[in-house]
C-alpha cells in the first residue's frame, strides 16, 4: 500500500476513442490525473465528458485507446479480474444487483466467485458487511425488487466492500434518492471512509454531496482534467463549464456550502 498522500491511481496521457460507422468520437485526450491515498476525489463534467468511462477504465472493464492507468503502482491491465476485485470496489449508478439473488447472495457473490472459502465463512462475511452499511439481518433474505432505492444502494455498497478493497469507485451514489436517504448515504460514506481507511473516487453532480465529502474535485472539460483541487479553488478557476456548473443557477447554493463545510476550502 502507498503511504498516506501517495498515489493510489495514476492516469497518464489517456486517450479514449469510440468509433461508429458514421464518425470517430474522442472522449478523452491526453488526460492526466492522480488520486492520492486517503482522499475522496470527486469527478464532475458535462454530459458525454466520459466520467463513467473513466471509472470503468480504472476498474479495468474498458481499455483506453492510448495512455496508462496504474492502480497501487501496477498497470491495471496486469491486475486481472480477481485481483482487481480485491483492490477496487465499484458501486454502479443503479446498484446493478442480480435480480434473481437475495441481498445476501448479491453481497457474497464476489467471495463465492473465488471458490476458495467455505460457504459458512462467506455467509458470515456477507452478513458483517450487510450490517456495516446499515441494513438489518432480516434484509438479507429480501429480493432486490422488494428494496427501496436507498436499500439498493446500501446493498450494492456492501457488495463493493466485501473484499475489503482499499480503493472504492462510486458512480452517482446519491442519484435518485430522496433527501433523507441521500443524507444517510453520505453520512455512511464518510464513516466508512474513516473507519476502513478507504480512498474514494466518486462521480457526482449533486452539490451537497460534492461539498460534504470531497477533499478534491476533478473537473472534466475539453476532453481532459482542467483542474483537480479543493472545492474553493475549483470554483475560483476561470472556465466556462465551471461557471455554468457551480456559479450559474446553483451559485448561491455553492457559496452556502463552502461556508457550511469549512474543510472544503
Automatic annotation (TrEMBL):
Keyword ATP-binding: yes
Keyword Transcription: no
Source superkingdom: Bacteria
Coiled coil: none
Keyword terms of this UniProt record: ATP-binding, Cell membrane, Membrane, Nucleotide-binding, Transport
Organism, as annotated: Ramlibacter tataouinensis
GO terms, molecular function: ATP binding; ATP hydrolysis activity
Pfam families per record: ABC_tran
Stored PANTHER family: PROTEIN TRIGALACTOSYLDIACYLGLYCEROL 3, CHLOROPLASTIC
UniProt domain ABC transporter: residue ranges: 9-247
Protein name, as recorded: Iron ABC transporter ATP-binding protein
SUPFAM superfamilies: P-loop containing nucleoside triphosphate hydrolases
SMART domains listed in its UniProt record: AAA
Amino acid at each position: 500500500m502507498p503511504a498516506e498522500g501517495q498515489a493510489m491511481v495514476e492516469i497518464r496521457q489517456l486517450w479514449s476513442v469510440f468509433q461508429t460507422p458514421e464518425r470517430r468520437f474522442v472522449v478523452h485526450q491526453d488526460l492526466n490525473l492522480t488520486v492520492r491515498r486517503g482522499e475522496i476525489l470527486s469527478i464532475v463534467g458535462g454530459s458525454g465528458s466520459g466520467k463513467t468511462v473513466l471509472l470503468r477504465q480504472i476498474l479495468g472493464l474498458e481499455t483506453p485507446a492510448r495512455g496508462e492507468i496504474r492502480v497501487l503502482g501496477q498497470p491495471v491491465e496486469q491486475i486481472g479480474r480477481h485481483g482487481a476485485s480485491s483492490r477496487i470496489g465499484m458501486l454502479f449508478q443503479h446498484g446493478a444487483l442480480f435480480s434473481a439473488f437475495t441481498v445476501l447472495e448479491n453481497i457474497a457473490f464476489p467471495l463465492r466467485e473465488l471458490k476458495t472459502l467455505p460457504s459458512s465463512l462467506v455467509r458470515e462475511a456477507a452478513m458483517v458487511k450487510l450490517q456495516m452499511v446499515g441494513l438489518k439481518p432480516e434484509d438479507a433474505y429480501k429480493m432486490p425488487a422488494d428494496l427501496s432505492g436507498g436499500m439498493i444502494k446500501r446493498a450494492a455498497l456492501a457488495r463493493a466492500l466485501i473484499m475489503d478493497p482499499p480503493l472504492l469507485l462510486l458512480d452517482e451514489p446519491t442519484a435518485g434518492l430522496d433527501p433523507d436517504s441521500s443524507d444517510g448515504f453520505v453520512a455512511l460514506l464518510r464513516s466508512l471512509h474513516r473507519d476502513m481507511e478507504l480512498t474514494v473516487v466518486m462521480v457526482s453532480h449533486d452539490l451537497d454531496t460534492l461539498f460534504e465529502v470531497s477533499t478534491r474535485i476533478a473537473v472534466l472539460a475539453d476532453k481532459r482534467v482542467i483542474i483537480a483541487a479543493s472545492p474553493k479553488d475549483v470554483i475560483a478557476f476561470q472556465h466556462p463549464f465551471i461557471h455554468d456548473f457551480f456559479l450559474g443557477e446553483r451559485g448561491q447554493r455553492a457559496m452556502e456550502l463552502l461556508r457550511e463545510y469549512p474543510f472544503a476550502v
